[in-house]
Design a protein that fits this description.
Beta Polymerase, domain 2, three-stranded antiparallel beta sheet, mainly beta, two-stranded parallel sheet
């Protein structure tokens, strides 16, 4: 998709995750600056306990920060990522705050 002459998706402008309990979902927003078209690619992860996908960091350098943030907030691991780490929360932080099953007994927010 990135190097195909028909598509040339040379720009990853957003990479995020969604918790669609019981599955997690990865969402990639791609753009071709040559052909001026966009594509949204979704990948469903059914292994909630050990979610993992190959990193796209070698294809789009913007994925570096996105994948670290997704790992930090959702716990999705990206195999092949050069330096996957928690960037907002410390390594000691329990769980992944953007998952629907996340429980925080200390910082409770009610609406």
């Amino acid at each position: 998709m990135k190097d195909s002459p028909e598509t040339l998706f040379d720009f990853l402008f957003c990479e995020t995750a969604v918790d669609r309990n019981p599955n997690l979902e990865m969402v990639y927003h791609l753009n071709s600056t040559t052909h001026r078209h966009d594509m949204v690619l979704k990948v469903v992860l059914t292994d909630r306990e050990n979610p993992e996908l190959p990193s796209v960091n070698d294809l789009w350098k913007a994925a570096d920060l996105y994948e670290n943030e997704i790992y930090d907030m959702f716990g999705i691991k990206f195999s092949g990522h050069p330096y996957l780490r928690r960037i907002m929360l410390g390594d000691e932080w329990p769980g992944f705050p953007l998952r629907k099953d996340y429980k925080d007994d200390i910082n409770i927010v009610t609406l």
